Every structure is written in C-alpha cells, then in structure tokens.
Amino acid sequence: MDLKDKTVLITGSTDGVGRVVAERLGAAGARVLVHGRDAARGKAVVATIEAAGGKAEFLAADLASLAEVCRLAKAVRARTNRLDILINNAGVGTAGQGAKRQVSADGYELRFAVNYLAGFLLATELLPLLEASAPSRIVNVASAGQQAIDFSDVMLTRTYDGVRAYCQSKLAQILFTIGLAEELKGTGVTVNALHPASYMDTTMVQQAGVTPWSSVKQGADAILNQATSPDLEGRSGLYFDGPRESRADAQAYDAKARQQLRELSLNLVGLASTTSKEKHS
C-alpha cells in the first residue's frame, strides 16, 4: 500500500509494539495519529516520527473511560477528513491468576472494557470516516490466548481470574471482527484480527513476570502486514496468527454468540436506542 497522504490511528502507540508500528508507518509516509495516556511519551513518539521526516500528532485518552473513547473519536474527526487505517492495539495484560478484579471508569470489568469495548466503540464512532476513505482497513490486535465468553457472567462478578478476563476480552475482539466484516460488505472497509506474536518483549509482558519469547519487531511486522499488505486487499473477517491465516476459538464462528455480544456491547456503550451521532456529538 502506498502510504503517502494516508492517515492512520494506532491506539496504545506510545510504547511497545504500537510505538514500533507508529514509527514505521510514519517513516513510510503516513500521517500518524499517535494515541496513549502519557503526554510526554506521546510527544516523544511524535518527535521521533517528525525527525525522520514523517507527520504525526498525539491524542491523549484513557480507554478505561467510554467518555474518553468518544472524546478521542471526536478529536480524530476534528483533525482529519479521512482515516485510512485504524489499528486497535491498546490493551491491558492478564494480571495473573488470582488477581483482584478491577473495573473501568464505567464500572465494567477492566480487561473487557479496555481490550474489547473501547475498540468496539471507537470503531463504531469512526466508521463514517473510514467508509468515506475507502478502501480502508481496521486491524484488531487480539491474542492467541482466548476463552469463550460466558454471557451469564461477562463481567466475571461470580468468579474472577485475570487470565480468564484477558482471554475472553481478546476473543470478544475476534467475534466483533467477524461480525463487523459481515456488516461492512460492499463498503470498501475491511476488518481483520491477529495475534501478533507470543510474549513480545513489551512492558505488559515484563509486568506479568514472563520471559519474552519474541520481539516487538516480529509483532510489528505482523501488524503492518495486516495494515498495508496488498495481498489482504478486499479480504475481511479473518483471524491471523502472526503472518498466517488461522482459526480462532470455536465461539468466534457462532453467529448467535456474535449477535449476543453485539447487542450487549451496544447496551454497554449506550448506543442501543440511539445513534452514535446523537449520543456523542
């Protein structure tokens, strides 16, 4: 893909694999909208991209708050009339087995809120911009760590485990990917999900106390392939393990489960009975 004059938003791009992807897209000619919570780190990424001759801006938002997600989407719409690539990369790690249950600003289980629900809402808010920029792409950075969603206890209030919380949030991303791909047929917007690499040398992995198995470069290569490869032009609703097309947990291919998740998600973000524009403009 020729990235000149293309605009890309990458959530969680002030550190780790997101930062590598942002810097490489900037070096390739894209205008990069860098996202994170820390302004100093965000400005450092922008400075690196600009020093290499690229264009970048930093947008701050805490994705643990749905109001902040909406504010981020509004900031994107205020700064550009096109969005060619959206990469939902930001995430919270497993926190380990036996971890204490955490909640978002809206009272939702934290990993479900940040890893899945924020990306669901952000993509929904930015779909008009993506459709206007078609052919365009959405890339959801998921994981090979997946567990089926228990719709009777999505927020894990009965029994909580950090690993389960993480794994169900990542599978939710894949259900969303497949369902959204069906909705977007004929629009020119494609959406795919991937597991970039196992236990990359990121802050998230270090905090989990795990010895890295792979590098952020390896993960970045896989994400960039999803975002820019001409081989994926027009292909949508797929799950990749690194650079290879793969199969996710069986629940991802259950149409009833996908619809159940969509209805739940619309209710959680407050879009069930109103349009995104009415709710968040």
Describe the main β-sheet briefly: 8 strands, mixed
Gyration radius (Cα, Å) is 17 Å
Number of H- or I-type helical stretches: 9
Strand content: 5-15%
Describe this entry's structure for a reader.
By secondary structure, this protein is an alpha/beta fold. The protein has a single domain (7-275), classed as 3-Layer(aba) Sandwich (Rossmann fold), CATH 3.40.50.720. 43% of the residues lie in helices and 14% in strands. The protein has an eight-stranded mixed sheet, with helices on both faces. α5 links the parallel β5 (136-141) and β6. α5 packs across α8.
Features:
single chain, 281 residues, Rossmann fold, 8 strands, 14% strand
Task: Give the helices and strands, then pairings.
Blueprint: E1 7-10, H1 16-27, E2 31-36, H2 39-51, E3 55-60, H3 66-79, E4 85-88, H4 110-132, E5 136-141, H5 162-183, E6 189-195, H6 203-207, H7 216-228, E7 239-241, E8 244-246, H8 255-269, H9 276-280
Parallel strand pairs: 1-2, 1-4, 2-3, 4-5, 5-6, 6-7
Antiparallel strand pairs: 7-8
Helix pairs in contact: 1-2, 1-7, 3-4, 4-5, 5-8
Could you give a quick summary of the protein structure above?
It contains 9 helices and 8 strands.
